[in-house]
Amino acid sequence: MSVQNLPEAAVGPVRGRTARAEWRGLLIDSARTCYPVAVIKRVIGLAARYGFNRLHWHLTDDQGWRFEVPEYPLLTTDAAFLPRGRFDDYDSLLGDTRERAVTEQDEKWTNGFYSDAEIAEVVAHAEAHGIVIVPEVDVPGHMMAAIGVYPHLGRPAELPLPEGSMREHMWWPARNDLLWPTDEARDFISAVMRRIAQLFPGQYVHIGGDECAFQQWASDPRIGEWMRLRGVPRVERLQNWFMDIAAAVLRENGKRVAVWDEACEIWDDQEALVVAWDESRGMQRISAAGQRFVFADARTLYLNRIDPDAEVPQKGMVPGISITDILTAPWHEAQHPRCVGVQAAVWSEFVLDGDDLMSMLFPRLLAVAERLWNPDLDPADAAVRIAQEYAALRSAGALDVLAPQQR
Ligand code: ACM
């Protein structure tokens, strides 16, 4: 089915409305679940229908690496094909989410990577729909997949990895997900950032910077020596060393950089765009820093948190986020003079395929679209139109995503 054949939308950019924000983003996490290209294209078509204009594409994480870097072939021969993560340390889950995800994974879940031709296809599809792709390579943390195949990029204390130990390595309780401040890591980041700049024509590349467990660096008896060599005064400032390398390579290649809000707490780069996700901490960080930001507060915009009103049983995080929550949340931060827009996200730890993804996105993404486009939003009226639009999408089959073997 084609999204273009649907009747005129009842929510979002309906006739006469103008967008309330320049950046209207949606994050899709292909690192945890490598959705087929057809799913990504369907999401793009639907997101465009509701007036979104950025697809933040999360392409690397602890669980997988999703694009080719010729200098580092193991990223796609091996790190793209890791077994599905167990997420044992996650709490705040609905009921039997973890067990259901394990039971369903053989049937539903896909890993792998996107070839250059597939990325070009997605980019062209996005361009045709007025959406710019913002690819993300998350550094220096969330790097377990890459470190699993190139162990010298990670914590030296773990070297050498025991033969055939990559599987266990992923799940060691003491994480080894931070790049180490070595020449090898500098070369790695440089190659990866040059590559991502070649693959994606959009202005921005997101370089991550979230959830760095600095104590891993601190645990290395040689870290003081590394820091002296790099001119870094405090251990958490090591993160800046990585961000500076990534940003310099990207800027040489004509790009601008975006980061998660943790980075702006210590990385004083005023040119960076900050994506503020971390609930009240995100806004505290961005208030103290001076950068422009995108409002992406997990409390109302992380749609991997379950919809408490969903008709289909969901696998996801709690507390849930309802349509009413989205329509009525104050979002004062989105009025801030440095705020350039709003972004929703669906992380994929427990979202195993296109059907799961659609059930997390819809109908709630329609409520986000209303917030983005309707200056006189009346929650009761919006809820009626959202229900109407959702019914239209379902009856047109727009939310049905074929399983890979049926395509
Ligand atoms: C994030 O949710 N760690 C960006």
Short description:
The chain has helices at 37-49, 74-77, 97-108, 116-128, 144-149, 166-171, 183-199, 215-218, 223-230, 238-252, 261-266, 279-288, 298-301, 323-328, 354-361, 364-373, 379-395, and strands at residues 23-29, 54-58, 60-61, 64-65, 132-139, 204-208, 256-260, 273-276, 293-295, 339-346. The protein is an alpha/beta fold and 407 residues long.
Q: What do you see in this structure?
A:
Helix content is 39%, strand content 12%. The protein has 17 helices and ten strands. A hairpin with a 2-residue loop joins strand 3 and strand 4 (64-65). Helix 7 runs parallel beside helix 10 (238-252) and helix 16 packs across helix 17. It starts with 22 loop residues before the first strand and ends in a 12-residue tail after the last helix. Mean pLDDT is 93; it is low at 166-173.
